[in-house]
């Protein structure tokens, strides 16, 4: 006969249990939102930033401003490439129906939910790109290299120069101004980009064309 005494089994306090249930409920509600038809997979925050991948999303206002800038710069029927700039890509997709096309080059494979527009990209292999991604086939490239190092910028610059017909919008730290000019011939803009979480490093935008960011 089994012992009926359950005293040895650790029991959660009612307070802890309630907190745990609340956590799971919130998690289920978040997942429910994502799977419901009303959820917009392109909205900023639909994929949460991963600091281990050095991801820091722009604020909603900054992402909108940069998205509008590249649409104007690309022109009617223009092609836009977002290199390591997913929050701008998401803002562009919110403008569904506008006369442009866009693709996202990104290391984080969670963005493969965007289908054929997603291209896996590792800046360590800057020209390891699909054959159908033809050289100089984008009217503008917006790029945000994941790390503030000359090596990262130099390799990302190879990708940018391969993709663009000419126009470049680079987002990186203010400390990279000299290297940005050296590797991409871009100049700093007056516009100050903001992130959804404050970064320790001052962040700036750089362009090589007459932009609306001045």
From TrEMBL:
GO terms for biological process: methylation. It is found in: Cytoplasm. GO terms for molecular function: nucleic acid binding; protein-lysine N-methyltransferase activity. One of its GO terms (cellular component) is cytoplasm. It holds the Pfam family N6-adenineMlase. It catalyses: L-lysyl-[protein] + 3 S-adenosyl-L-methionine = N(6),N(6),N(6)-trimethyl-L-lysyl-[protein] + 3 S-adenosyl-L-homocysteine + 3 H(+). Its main location: cytoplasm. InterPro entries: DNA_methylase_N6_adenine_CS, Efm5/EEF1AKMT1, Mlase_EEF1AKMT1/ZCCHC4, SAM-dependent_MTases_sf. It comes from the Eukaryota. The keyword Cytoplasm applies. The keyword Transferase applies. Signal peptide: none annotated. Keywords: Cytoplasm, Methyltransferase, Transferase. HAMAP family: Methyltr_EFM5. This is EEF1A lysine methyltransferase 1.
